[in-house]
Amino acid sequence: MKPYPIELRQRVLDAIDAGSATREQIARTFQVSSRWIRNLLRRRDQEGSINPRPQNPGRKPAFDATHLAKLDRFVQSHPDATLAQMQKHFASVVDCSIVAIHNALKRLDYRFKKNRYEQANKTGQT
After folding, report:
1. Distance from C-alpha of 60 to C-alpha of 78, rounded to nearest angstrom
2. DSSP code of 79?
3. What is the mean pLDDT of each run of 10 residues along the chain (126 residues)?
């Protein structure tokens, strides 16, 4: 969810400071909750700012660019390695789970499902 713009925050605070209406009426006018107004006032008093806090970008991937390249080379040299074997191989470099390795392989565009047509062509069958 996107944070409310600074202009809206300032207009709400101007209306509160003017004292022309109650918080509930101002909340209805600006289509925000009265709790949000209370929190905004508290932030202004405690922090001196009404700017929105930075959004959390999420967790960083376990495999950065250099480790992804190493994983790619490992998979090319060991195409039949399992996820558990990959985790054991990279245990000294990256502390991660099997799911993290799976996600890294997805970022490298590796597929896990075997294609019967490609296998048949490799062995000379049709």
Report:
1. 26
2. T
3. 91 93 94 95 94 85 90 91 91 90 90 57 54
